[in-house]
Amino acid sequence: MNTKILYLFLVVALMLTLTGPTITPSQAAPADATFTVTTNLDYSPGAPDGSCYNSVVEGCGLREAIVEANAAAGNKSINFSTALAGLTIYLNSPDAGLGGLSISGDNIVIDGSTSGGDIIIDAGGLSANNNLFEIQGNNNTIRHLMLRGWPDTRNPDPNYGHGVRIYDSSANGMASYNTLDYLRIFGFEHNGVLISGDLGGGGHHNTVAHSVIGGANWSQTTCPGDGNRWEGIAIANGADNTNINANQIVCNGNSGVWLNGGTGGQISETIIQTNKIGTDGAHDMGNGLSGIVDTQAISTTIYNNQISGNNEWGVWLQSSSAAVLTGNRIGLDITGNVALPNSFDGVLVSDGAAYNHIGTDVGRNWISGNTYCGVRLDTGAHDNVLENNYIGTNMAGTAAVPNSAAGVAVSDSSSTNNFIGTSQAGVYQIISGNTREGIYIEDAGGTFIGQATYIGVASDRLAALGNGLQGVMLNNATDTSVFATVIAYNGGAGVAVVGNSATGNSIRPQGIIRSNGGLPVDLGNDGPTPNDPGDSDSGPNGLLNYPVITGGSGSAVSGTACNNCTVFIYRAIGNPAAVGGGGEYAQEVTADASGNWNATLSSGLTPANITMMACESPCFFTGSTSEMSPVTVYEVFLPLVLK
Question: Could you tell me where the beta strands, DSSP code E, fall in 250-320?
């Protein structure tokens, strides 16, 4: 699909998502039948008879209430006596071998809040090949319960050992439109929640909301060892349109959320919004692997989450497509001013992941404080767009909260046609304050760094907030277009190109490049490269000669450059052939087939106060660019001001 068409489709879809109501669990219709649990004993319920009462224990147990509700028609409610508040239901006691709690009917609401206190359901008595809750019907709700797992290993089968499994065993489109709400799910051998589709189309439009997954309480600030051993929430086998909303997903042994689209059918249209993943907001309560892993899913929306403190990546888009990330804080605490690092990159896009949008023109992400890069595109990631983000700063964009490596890294020769910032007016992406490079590109081809990107400045697009090394480092990168509007105040060169394989890199900042700790543009990252006769040497961007002036008076200027080259003309700032110098973009002209060019300069410019770069034809995406030419009369070094 054409990238621009897909982009427009994604933006429209996202706007509909963001402007519509927040997705919350639907309210159940009034009950046609109500069963009230009055005992915390678990016993064999026998066949359903329309009433929930066991004469031996003289009460109604939860297991029997579920059996009766499964068999009853209409809307059913299962409530709890106030006498049970604060008590624990131990499954399989006193009767052994009863297994987990199976909801096979439809339209059942199990509500622990009716007791007026906590109701704990303990699965420690379950044997192998059981889940605490197994939901196979439609339109069911479980809310306000604590689900506690077991401390040992007893379920090698990955279908079991979960707190809740929503699954259509009949493969006829069931296990849909179910809601888990205000639960605490912890201590299970496998996943806290597993939502699994099937070839019959089941497992869609399920919701997990307002729950703590991996902890016993919202007030928890550490991980005392009661997380679920696998994922907090796993989605598999083609389950679609899942809503994961307003949860705290922490302390799990693997990832907080895993969309496993690699087996059993592609997962689509998942919405993950307003969750805290790896943190309670202020404390490191990281999941053992990543915050979110999106594997081979399509059209996932990851919106308005705090994803911090996880032990690998904040978000990993692995072979996924058309995901949209916006409004997320990744690597920051709840204030947006303090690092709460994910231990690898904030966002990893890899394994052929394509057409994903990290930030959009209607919403940004704040990706800062992570242990490696803010965003890394690797191993075949292609046609992805990063825009409107703050990468390496606090949420206000006024102070550095550095990612410890580059702000954005693109690597691998199969990672192509990725966009770091677009050319849209009014959409400002700030990549500043990172420990190493603002943008680091190695071996990758066709990366576009758009005009809406600002590298090394704060959110006002003026104040210094440099990256520690180069603004942009192109290491054996090819066909890169650097159109960023500002590249300033970085610790190394503004743009450095290294490696003999680095060719076709078109460097043409559309505003100002200046005040960097190296040259504005440095081929070889080794200081000024003098022109050579014939310009036949090899090296980064072919060590292309910069243009020279052969004559001029007043606003008229003429010179020579490579044949048919584009000549970019900048107002010189300082000495563009020395550390800290640079220029402000003014205009461009094209040399003829013999390399001759002439221009009528913009107001205030003369041949004595301009600097130039040459760009081989065709220039726009694939033309190697030279360093900036020296000048003999320098402009006064003034603070950065954008016109």
Answer: 257-260, 271-273, 276-277, 292-295, 301-303, 306-307, 315-318
Token pair recorded at residue 409 = 């890294």
Q: Taking CA 521 as the corner, what is the angle to CA 517 and CA 524, rounded to the nearest 5 degrees?
A: 95
How far out from the chain centre does Cα 203 lie? 25
| Strand locations in 63-155 (E) | 76-80, 88-90, 101-103, 108-111, 120-122, 133-135, 141-143, 146-148
Quick one: residue 426, left, alpha or beta (phi over 0 = left, psi -120 to 50 = alpha)?
left
Long-range contacts of 22-25 (CB under 8 A, 24+ apart): 22/245, 22/273, 22/274, 23/207, 23/243, 23/245, 23/271, 23/273, 24/209, 24/245, 25/141, 25/143, 25/179, 25/181, 25/207, 25/209
CA distance 525 to 627: 11
In angstroms, rounded to a whole number, what is the distance separating the alpha carbons of residues 2 and 12?
A: 16
Q: For the chain, which residues make up each domain, given as ranges?
A: 24-226+246-252
Could you read off the pLDDT of 109-164 as tens digits, one per residue? 999 999 999 999 999 999 888 999 999 999 999 999 999 998 788 878 899 999 99
The per-residue DSSP string of 28-83 comes to: PPPPSEEEEE----B----S--SS--BTTTTB--HHHHHHHHHHS-S-EEEEE-GG
Backbone angles phi, psi at 8, to 5 degrees: -60, -40
Give the pLDDT band of residue 635 (cuts 50, 70, 90).
Answer: very low
Phi, psi of 558 (to 5 degrees): -140, 160
Q: Which amino acid is at 177?
A: Y
For 400, the token pair is 């550095």
**Unique residue bearing structure tokens 């200046």:** 514
Q: What's the mean per-residue pLDDT of the chain?
A: 92
- As a whole number of angstroms, the distance between CA 472 and CA 459 comes to 18
User: From the CB of residue 414, how many other CB atoms can be counted at a distance below 10 Å?
Assistant: 14
pTM across the whole model: 0.93
Spatial distance between the Cα atoms of 281 and 336, rounded to a whole number of angstroms: 10
Cα-only R_g, the chain: 30
pLDDT in tens, 586-609: 999 999 999 999 999 999 999 999
